[in-house]
Design a protein that fits this description.
The complex is a heterotrimer.
Chain A lengths: L4 E3 L4 H11 L3 E4 L5 H7 L6 E4 L10 E4 L2 E5 L4 H6 L1 H6 L1 H7 L5 H4 L4 H7 L7 H6 L3 E6 L2 E6 H4 E3 L2 E2 L5 E9 L5 E8 L10 E8 L4 E6 L6 E5 L11 H12 L13 H25 L4
Parallel strand pairs in A: 1-3, 2-3
Antiparallel strand pairs in A: 4-5, 5-10, 6-7, 6-10, 8-9, 11-12, 12-13, 13-14
Chain B lengths: L1 E8 L2 E8 L4 H8 L18 E4 L2 E4 L12 E3 L12 H8 L9 H14 L5 H7 L10 H15 L1
Parallel strand pairs in B: 1-5
Antiparallel strand pairs in B: 1-2, 3-4, 3-5
Chain C lengths: L14 H6 L14 E6 L6 E7 L1 H4 L4 E6 L9 E2 L6 E2 L5 E2 L7 E5 L2 H10 L1 E6 L6 H5 L23 E9 L9 E9 L11 E7 L2 E6 L4 H11 L7 E4 L16 H11 L3 E4 L2 H5 L6 E10 L5 E11 L7 H10 L9 E9 L14 H19 L3 H7 L19 H12 L9 E11 L4 E10 L4 E5 L8 H13 L6 E4 L20 H25 L7 E3 L2 E3 L4 E3 H9 L5 E10 L14 E12 L6 E11 L6 H20 L30 E7 L21 H13 L10 H11 L1
Parallel strand pairs in C: 1-14, 12-13, 16-17, 20-21, 27-28
Antiparallel strand pairs in C: 1-7, 2-6, 2-8, 3-7, 4-5, 9-17, 10-15, 11-12, 11-14, 15-16, 18-26, 19-20, 19-25, 22-23, 23-24, 26-27
Helix pairs in contact in C: 9-16, 12-13, 13-14, 15-16
Classes of the chains: A alpha+beta, B alpha+beta, C alpha+beta.
């Protein structure tokens, strides 16, 4: 690894100042599970690495705040998975977080880091999209909030402006009863990167939301308000055209090593159906998991 | 850039001057000469470099040593107490878990972390906890059996 | 019977160090004053090197020098276990993705890495040869210069390095009711030992010391001695226990390079590969095999006819031996009227293929067993039944003039069938498969051992076998414990140093329990002969009246332990009783493989699977592997090896393969996109079993083990998939996507 300076700011102001001072030469370090690989392979060559785990405004922890759960930027996947409130209200996020790498990875990788790294295959993006998460951003011009669908722009590209960072991810508690599920497709049963990653929610008013990733430059969020998808009694023939329209914007890379485009598109349909089924069942059961 | 860190390794507090760009794995093996923790993929995929930091299993190859100021780290060398093998280590021997042995320190640390939080794991829970530790000799059956046996013995 | 003797499962020798972290592997060795080396490679699979500018690299603080081909003797030294075709560094042309063009020597790892990045190589990408089709295409460029091949080689102007014909009978003269012909492909896969390769060298007076993660220390010693014009006595190879070998660490790779660098530096030089670099250093030969199987409607196997293309790499390494040894036995454990094999070693601009557990047999078995299943389907005979009908009996010479069937193989097959429940009704949606295979053990062999029974009744066993997880060290101690009647815990096995340990030919071919085991046995018996002489002297009896057995010395009227007699015989001065043993299997003149098989590893594997009809994902519900082992000297280790081999076989069956781009470059270097089985990828039930009839040539009737259980993993799984779904897939790996594609085509 090339040499770099290491900074450990103790305040948000200090962290932002470092980003301002070094511009593109500064990289934020959260869990390191993406950054350190980039450093070692030479894809990234920062002059300073900024470890923000001691910035109080970004501290690890999940708190309730006015009808939302707010997940601090330094919160690792293991903590997301084990939190009883997340398990109760956002089971699909738990399902996604618990397949991010191995136990060792989940003990370090942060939810915010997963979103900021913004791989098209980021496992937690689909549930966060479906649940309508909002990203809390802070920078030299103060704080702002960005809906996740606007935050994710493309492969490794977010809406963060220079000298901005993420302090937390907020997920509003559902106002309607919902059932939700997360599925993904991998090459082996053991730890793997996803070839398809998908989340589906169905609410008591018949609105279905589906987010799918690893099938284009960024994960997509689509919804069906006709009530057909959410209807457990509607036949497959009625649901199929709706799915087709939803999946029309999928554009899998022909160069991917993980699977070919034709297979990916087929699995998208398979997982979509299965996740929808589970979501409907969970809504009917009146429980979240 | 040299960074001073105050780090507890296997029960002993140490004051080290480490390079900012060195990983925890580098510092353990090269600076502290604790070569029990091994190096393989260097990208957090194989689990060979697993250590327990602040009670949790992590890949030391993906962690910068500088992050561990104030942290408590346990490596495989810290499992035996007063030279006596821990029940987990003994169970590994009794079940012929080590074949070539190179993945074993990492497997032991993942298992150690598991048993710290979950003293009576199910088979699936053992698989999940050790799912990030590759073994090419594929002694998975023996390793899993050893962990379950150690859990049994400790309760 | 002593504790820790034969048939028991004492703790693995060296197990304590492995669970405490104190076991020293290559990377853990301290080499004072050593320079760190780093390889320089280019991003091309075949390219002409135009220039190498090392000036920026040399400016990095801590860099001592950068070695290129220009710094080496001219013409550039070459080496290789079969043919000395491999240059120490790329010679004017990079011939595979990852062939190094230079190497940096620096005081620190950081400096070496930094400098390697700064070496500027100008190169011109050339068209290369990457597939079997490419290698057979006369229009494609030559991988190797013809000057490297014998002048009378008719294939000199092609990429066919060698072509062989094996077999017996006349396939064209026999008739079969049904002939099934298909081609089967096996991909390139890599060993992925968890310990990456390491190499170090240091000048040592007028000689040289080499440290290496090498499976064959004595072979390496010979190579270095030859290249540096040194007597063997001045070349010392130190081989620490390996963190996995699987064949990928058998033969030299970068030892000659670090030796040149060390001699230049006057100091030790140490090179440790990254995991990615190991993928570019070693792999298994890929194959395309055309099989024609002729059967009669009554289930008789009439003939087997093979055309085998093995895709080796840019240098031969041991690839040609892989081809001959596996192809000669391509017919497998079957009685047939005729077998014909045309087989080829093809060169390509890819990583040189080398030995890999199974040594060509998994590739050929995939083809043969799969085709046999298709033949079974064609004549409507049960797949198990077809195999049993043509299975040789014990001692039947199914390969004319060669080793006959060395076990009651039927027992092994029956056991596998029983454990899988072959005749039980299948749950809906599931399928079963069964496959059988055999691999020849070593064809020649030579091992020496020395046993030193010390004055306090403990013992040292010198055995040059490399311990890479197969547990050789443990087994040798068990043999000594059994023979000398001393506790297993009081025996220390010494290996890994050519200056101290007597000669061992190699660690491969599952040979060590048999060949080295017999040498250890002979050394123990040499000790016992000396103890008998001592007994005669001390107790004043005739030596002919002294019997040693099971660690005891029996006289006409008394008995003592071996240790008691030894101590009495050594007297007050103490000392030790030294025994030497040799185990040798000489070459058979004129034999295509240089010798008959010392024994066979015979295996039957069966499994039960289901396939997700929407995703193509295969779930293995039960997997059974049964091997004919002769005698399990350490049952736990046998299980560990067989379970492990099975899971490794599932790797190349379900998920492993190199992925290349159009320019022959490897795309999936490293652990993220090259998938091997994890603890979560195991079959729901994995059962390994042994058949023991003490009918092997090794100690106590043992045969070799540890390759048997991955010989036929692929066809067993393929067979079960076909049984469950009707899908016939002839290429590996059986990824969900490949299975799905086959399902779509079926519809």
């Amino acid at each position: 690894m090339r040499e770099f300076e290491f900074a450990r700011p103790g305040s948000l102001a200090e962290a932002v100042a470092l980003l301002e001072e070094h511009g593109a030469g500064a990289h934020l370090l959260a869990g390191g599970t993406d950054l350190v690989i980039g450093l070692r392979k030479g894809w990234l060559a920062p002059s300073v690495v900024v470890d923000c785990k001691r910035v109080p405004e970004m501290a690890a922890g999940i708190r309730e705040d006015g009808g939302s759960l707010v997940i601090g930027a330094s919160t690792v996947m293991t903590d997301v998975v084990e939190d009883p409130r997340i398990r109760e209200h956002f089971p699909a996020l738990v399902e996604a977080a618990e397949v991010v790498g191995s136990v060792q990875i989940r003990n370090r990788a942060t939810l915010a880091g997963n979103i900021c790294n913004c791989s098209p295959a980021a496992d937690t993006a689909p549930p966060l999209l479906v649940y309508g998460a909002v990203v809390h951003v802070a920078g030299r011009d103060g704080a702002r909030q960005v809906p996740i669908d606007d935050f994710i722009l493309g492969p490794n590209r977010t809406a963060l402006a220079p000298a901005e960072l993420v302090t937390a991810i907020e997920i509003p508690l559902p106002e309607r009863r919902i059932g939700s599920a997360y599925l993904r497709h991998t090459r082996r049963k053991g730890t793997d990167l996803a070839s398809i990653t998908l989340c589906c929610s169905v609410d008591e008013q018949g609105v279905t939301r589906i987010a799918f990733g690893s099938i284009g430059p960024r994960p997509f969020l689509v919804s069906d308000e006709t009530g057909v998808l959410a209807d457990p009694d509607a036949p497959d023939e009625a649901k199929a055209p709706i799915f087709e329209e939803m999946f029309a914007q999928a554009s899998p890379s022909p160069r991917s090593m993980r699977s070919g485009p034709e297979y990916r598109l087929a699995m998208l349909r398979v997982l979509g159906k299965r996740a929808l089924q589970t979501a409907i069942e969970r809504l009917a059961r009146g429980q979240s998991t | 850039m040299k960074i001073p860190i105050h780090i507890k390794v296997n029960g002993e507090w140490r004051d080290l001057d480490i390079e900012a760009h060195h990983t925890l794995l580098d510092v353990l093996r090269d600076d502290l000469e604790l070569t029990g923790t091994k190096e393989c993929c260097d990208e957090g995929e194989c689990g060979t470099c697993t250590v327990v930091a602040d009670g949790r299993a992590i890949c030391s190859c993906l962690a910068l040593a500088a992050e561990f100021d104030g942290a408590e780290v346990i490596t495989v060398e810290g499992l035996a107490v007063d030279g006596r093998l821990s029940p987990l280590q003994q169970a590994f021997l009794d079940n012929a878990a080590p074949q070539c042995g190179f993945c074993i320190p990492g497997q032991l640390m993942s298992a150690h972390a598991l048993l710290l939080h979950n003293p009576r794991p199910t088979l699936d829970e053992v698989h999940e906890a050790l799912g990030g530790n590759l073994c090419r000799c594929a002694g998975y059956l023996q390793i899993t059996e050893a962990v379950l046996q150690a859990a049994e013995a400790s309760s | 019977m002593t504790s820790g003797g034969i048939g028991s499962s004492p703790h693995r020798g060296g197990g304590y160090g492995r669970v405490t972290g104190h076991q020293k592997y290559f990377a853990d060795l301290k080499l004072p004053e050593a320079l760190h080396a780093k390889l320089v490679t280019i991003d091309a699979a075949r390219a002409r090197i135009l220039s190498i500018d090392t000036s920026a690299a040399e400016q990095v603080p801590g860099v001592r020098f950068v070695t290129t081909a220009a710094d080496l003797p001219q013409p550039i030294p070459r080496f290789g276990p079969q043919v000395p075709d491999r240059p120490v560094l790329a010679d004017g042309e990079v011939k595979f993705h990852g062939e190094p063009v230079a190497a940096v020597a620096a005081e620190t790892k950081d400096a070496a890495e930094e400098a390697a990045r700064l070496v500027a190589v100008e190169y011109e990408v050339l068209e290369g040869v990457y597939t079997v089709a490419d290698a057979l295409d006369p229009a494609k460029p030559l991988v190797q210069d013809p000057s490297l091949r014998p002048e009378d080689d008719p294939l000199r102007g092609t990429n066919i390095r060698k072509e062989y014909r094996f077999g017996f009978g006349d396939v064209d003269a026999v008739t079969a009711d049904v002939v099934i012909e298909h081609t089967y492909a096996f991909p390139m896969v890599t060993h992925f030992a968890i310990e990456p390769h390491g190499f170090a060298a240091a000048p040592d007076g007028d000689g040289i010391t080499i440290w290496s993660t090498i499976q064959h220390p004595y072979w390496l010693q010979r190579t270095i001695a030859g290249m540096f014009d040194l007597p063997l006595s001045k070349v010392r190879v130190i081989a620490p226990d390996l963190g996995g070998g699987f064949g990928g660490k058998q033969h030299p790779k970068f030892e000659p390079l670090v030796a040149y660098m060390a001699l230049r530096a006057g100091r030790p030089v140490r090179l440790l590969l990254t995991l990615d670099e190991t993928f570019q250093a070693v792999r298994r030969a890929a194959t395309e095999v055309l099989v024609r199987t002729g059967v009669n409607r009554d289930g008789t196997l009439v003939f087997e006819d093979f055309v085998c293309n093995f895709l080796a790499g840019a240098y031969v390494d041991i690839a040609d031996r892989v081809v001959t040894k596996s192809s000669y036995w391509a017919g497998g454990p079957y009685r047939a009227s005729a077998v014909r094999v045309l087989t080829r070693t093809l060169l390509s601009n890819t990583v040189p293929s080398t030995a890999f557990r199974g040594f060509g047999v998994p590739q050929l078995s995939w083809a043969r067993e799969s085709n046999l299943d298709e033949a079974a389907a064609a004549i409507g005979i049960d797949r198990l039944e077809l195999r049993l009908r043509n299975l040789p009996e014990h001692l039947e010479e199914f390969m004319p003039g060669d080793t006959p069937a060395d076990g009651t193989w039927r027992e092994t097959v029956d056991k596998a069938a029983e454990l899988i429940g072959w005749d039980a009704p299948l749950p809906p949606g599931r399928g079963r498969g069964i496959a059988i295979g055999l691999k020849s053990g070593p064809t020649t062999g030579l091992s020496y051992s020395m046993v030193r029974l010390l004055a306090d009744g403990s013992a040292l066993v010198f055995a040059g076998t490399s311990d890479m997880g197969q547990g050789a060290r443990t087994v040798f101690a068990q043999i000594a414990a059994q023979e000398l009647g001393i506790p297993f815990e009081r025996i220390q096995v010494v290996s890994g140093d050519t200056a101290v340990v007597p000669y061992d030919q190699q660690t491969s071919a599952s040979r060590s329990t048999v060949i080295m085991g017999n040498a250890v046995l002979a050394a123990c018996r040499d000790v016992l002969a000396k103890v008998r002489a001592m007994a005669a002297r001390v107790y004043d009896v005739d030596e002919s009246e002294v019997v040693t057995e099971d660690g005891m010395v029996r006289l006409p009227d008394r008995k003592f332990t071996v240790v008691e007699v030894a101590q009495a015989g050594l007297g007050r001065l103490g000392g030790e009783v030294i025994g030497i043993g040799e185990s040798r299997k000489d070459a058979t003149p004129g034999h295509p493989l240089s010798g008959t098989a010392a024994f066979f590893e015979f295996n039957a594997t069966a499994c039960e699977v289901s396939v997700d009809p929407e995703t193509g994902q295969i779930t293995i519900h039960r997997y059974v592997t049964v091997s004919d082992v002769g005698k399990a000297l350490n049952p736990n280790q046998v299980h560990g090896q067989d379970d492990g081999a099975a899971v490794m076989g599932l790797g190349h069956t379900l998920m492993e393969h190199y992925i290349f781009d159009d320019a022959g470059r490897i795309r999936n270097l490293g652990a993220i996109d090259y998938r091997i089985p994890t603890a979560k990828d195991l079959p729901e039930e994995l059962i390994s079993a042994s058949v023991e009839n003490a009918d092997g040539p090794g100690p106590y009737g043992a045969k070799g083990i540890s390759e048997g259980s991955l010989l036929v993993t692929s066809p067993a799984v393929g067979s079960a998939v076909r049984d469950a779904t009707g899908l016939v897939i002839r290429d590996l790996p059986l990824t969900p996507e490949r299975v799905w594609r086959a399902m779509k085509e079926q519809q």
